[in-house]
Write a structure and sequence with these properties.
The chain has 252 residues and is α/β, with parallel strands linked by helices. It has two domains: 105 residues, Tetrapyrrole methylase, N-terminal domain (Cobalt-precorrin-4 Transmethylase, domain 1), CATH 3.40.1010; 118 residues, Methyltransferase, Cobalt-precorrin-4 Transmethylase, Domain 2, CATH 3.30.950. 25% of the residues lie in helices and 19% in strands. The longest helix is centred in the N-terminal third of the chain and has 13 residues. It starts with a strand and ends in a 28-residue tail after the last strand. The structure holds S-adenosyl-L-homocysteine. The site of S-adenosyl-L-homocysteine has 24 residues, from helix 4 and strand 10.
């Protein structure tokens, strides 16, 4: 059995209890060394074999995992955040399916959740936005035109933009061309939940300048929307006059 495990956003104690146990029991760990906190490997078995996938191709990762599985070893493939977000896990699963190798996924705390915690923010505020768009700028990996930043910006929903810290000039242009006013609140969250985390609050028009002055070039999320600052309506769920399945509303 191969276990795909979400490592969480950075802080070593933000992995799930299940993920931690799987790491402790693993005979072989293949971890995404560019972003996974190496502290997570501290509690491994003394004879556990470690591979850093930052230096490996898909073929090499599969060879290591399939080989170990054949020898009856317990394998953990450790991905940053949650494996389902820009994790390149599907291609690994397809290869394992072809070889008839069983696998399971243990979810993790994605960095977009870590960043909300760092910002002490709620992405979905009544009267502001009830949707979160998780996306990226096109880079070496293309983004379909129907999902361009410009098109999403037209909704003025909350946006969390991954993998785009090196493209802030174009990102700013796309966000404003799509419809966000240039003074829309924005934030750059660098290494959310890591000890050297940085949280920079700015506006859409000052994203590039802010990243430059803070020296941020990678491992950051760009977060945009009026949820960061501004008027909202309180929830109905906790409104005294509102009846729910669990609580009868009181009339004034
Ligand atoms: N599966 C991961 C994302 C992998 S893509 C997740 O769920 O978070 C890698 C990108 O994620 C980085 O380029 C950066 O944009 C973002 N990222 C990952 N960890 C981060 C962190 N701790 N703080 C800010 N951004 C992070």
């Amino acid at each position: 059995m191969i276990h795909f495990v979400g490592a969480g956003p950075g802080a070593a104690d933000l992995i799930t209890v299940r993920g931690q146990r799987l790491l402790e029991e693993a005979d072989v760990i293949v971890y995404a060394g560019s972003l996974v906190n190496p502290k997570l490997l501290d509690n491994r078995k003394t004879d556990c074999e470690i591979h850093n996938s930052a230096y490996m191709t898909l073929e090499e990762v599969i060879e290591v995992m399939a080989g170990a599985e054949k020898r009856g070893k317990k394998v953990v493939r450790l991905h940053t955040g949650d494996p389902s977000i820009y994790g390149a896990v599907r291609e690994q699963m397809d290869e394992l399916d072809q070889r008839g190798i069983a696998y399971e996924v243990c979810p993790g705390v994605s960095s977009f959740c870590g960043a909300a915690a760092s910002l002490r923010a709620e992405y979905t505020l009544p009267d502001i936005s009830q949707s979160v768009v998780i996306t990226r700028m096109a880079g070496r990996t293309p983004v379909p035109e129907r999902e361009s930043i410009r098109r999403f910006a037209a909704h003025q929903a909350t946006m969390v933009i991954f993998l785009s810290t090196g493209l802030l000039e174009d990102l700013q242009k796309e966000l404003t061309a799509g419809g966000y006013p240039p003074d829309t609140p924005a934030a750059i969250v660098y290494k959310a939940t890591w000890p050297d985390e940085k949280v920079c609050r700015c506006t859409v028009e000052s994203l590039k300048e802010t990243a430059e002055s803070e020296g941020i070039r990678k491992t950051a999320l760009i977060i945009v929307g009026r949820f960061l600052k501004g008027e909202y309506r309180r929830s109905e769920l906790y409104n005294p006059a509102f009846t729910t399945e669990f609580r009868k509303g009181k009339r004034e």
